[in-house]
Prior knowledge:
The chain is α/β, with parallel strands linked by helices and 220 residues long. It contains 10 helices and 5 strands; from the N terminus they run βαβαβαβαβαααααα. The chain has a 5-stranded parallel β-sheet with strand order 2-1-3-4-5, with helices on both faces. Helix 8 crosses helix 9. It is globular, with a radius of gyration of 17 Å.
Amino acid sequence: MIRVLxxxxxxxxxxxxxxxxxxxxxxxxxxxxxxxxxxxALVKEQLPDVALIDIQMSVMDGIEATRRIAADPALAGVHxxxxxxxxxxxxxFDALRAGAAGFLVKDILPEDFLHAVRVAARGDALLAPAxxxxxxxxxxxxxxxxxxxxxxxELTGREREAVALVAQGLSNDEIADRLVISPLxxxxxxxxxxxxxxxxxxxxxxxxxxxxGLVTPRVS
Length: 220
């Protein structure tokens, strides 16, 4: 059973998502919250598999709630998915750095929403190619302060290759094809890289790849 927590300051949004989730036999909504502070308390109490958290809320916004969840070792099993009204807004980059596993736009199709919850529960990042491309565009136009490349020293050559391809928006199957390895081996390289770099998920790997200089955005 996938345990889900809903955190959004709009009751209608919460009720709509809950109605969809309640219809599924393998998903249970364990609690709801109307702001980030209440949501954080419920995350600690309920330990959900997936926390769906709105970015913009009163009392405590979703980014701060996500940052506190990511910083708490006791909550390592909680996968935070941010809810946003836009495909890419000004808060997305801060949310990635805070530890969000991915993003869902609130007008998402029901079947895509349910699939996304299941993907997040497995520990896979919800960083669609479209989001990755926009991330790349952002780094092209407004590159952040580069981190030292020393953070990559622990990676093997194959792991570096895999991380670089993740940063280009490739899926595990596409990475496997590019490196001429099996999808399982590709996933293993990525998981090991995440462990060595202390990245919670694929989303943070993309950020690290650009900030470390492993991948350099090219202006088209």
